[in-house]
Design a protein that fits this description.
The chain is mostly helical and 168 residues long. The chain has helices at 2-28, 45-65, 82-100, 105-109, 123-147; strands spanning 111-112, 121-122. The chain has a two-stranded antiparallel sheet. It is globular and about 50 Å long.
C-alpha cells in the first residue's frame, strides 16, 4: 500500500503542476484568440483546452466508473470562454484527484479495459497517460502562443508571470 500511496502522490504532484502551467497558458491566451487556429484543419486554441478537459473526463469516468461515454469526446458547438474553460479544467481535475483517495495498489496494477484501444495497460499507466496527454497539448498551445507573438509560460513549473529560466 505504501508504494501505491507514494506513486499516487507523485502522480498527483505531476497532475497539479502541469495543470497550473496549462492554466497559465490559458490566462495568456487573449480571449478573442480562443477561436483562432494556426491552420484550417487544426483545433482552435479554445478547442485545444477543451480537448484536454474532455479527454481527461472521458478516461477518468471510464477508468473509475466503467462509464465509457464516447459523446464526452465530441467537439462542442459552443464558443468557449476563458471562464468556461477554466471551470471545465478545474472540475474534471477535482473529480480525478477525488478518486485517488479510493485507490489501492491492487487497483493500480489491474489491467483497464478501454474500448477500442488495442493495448492492455494497468490503471497506473492510464493515469500517467492523462499526465502525458496534457503535456502534449500544452506544448501545442505554447506554439499557438508563440505564433501570436506571446511568450508562453515555463513548460515544467508554474512560475511567476514572465519568469523563464530557460530564456536569457
Amino acid at each position: 500500500m505504501a508504494a501505491a500511496n507514494s506513486e499516487l502522490t507523485v502522480l498527483q504532484e505531476h497532475l497539479g503542476r502541469y495543470r497550473k502551467v496549462t492554466l497559465q497558458t490559458l490566462d495568456l491566451m487573449p480571449e478573442d484568440k480562443l477561436s483562432w487556429r494556426p491552420l484550417g484543419d487544426q483545433r482552435t486554441a479554445g478547442e485545444q483546452f477543451l480537448h484536454i478537459a474532455q479527454t481527461e473526463e472521458f478516461y477518468a469516468r471510464g477508468l473509475f466508473e466503467n462509464e465509457w461515454n464516447m459523446d464526452r469526446l465530441k467537439p462542442e458547438a459552443i464558443t468557449q470562454s476563458r471562464a468556461m474553460l477554466q471551470q471545465r479544467l478545474a472540475s474534471v481535475r477535482a473529480y480525478v484527484l477525488g478518486q485517488f483517495g479510493r485507490l489501492t495498489a491492487e487497483q493500480l496494477d489491474a489491467v483497464a479495459n478501454v474500448p477500442g484501444i488495442p493495448v492492455s495497460w494497468p490503471l497506473r499507466s492510464w493515469l500517467w497517460y492523462l499526465v502525458e496527454h496534457e503535456v502534449h497539448h500544452k506544448a501545442q498551445l505554447a506554439l499557438y502562443l508563440r505564433q501570436l507573438g506571446i511568450v508562453p509560460p515555463f513548460f515544467a513549473y508554474a512560475l511567476p508571470p514572465g519568469v523563464r529560466p530557460d530564456i536569457r
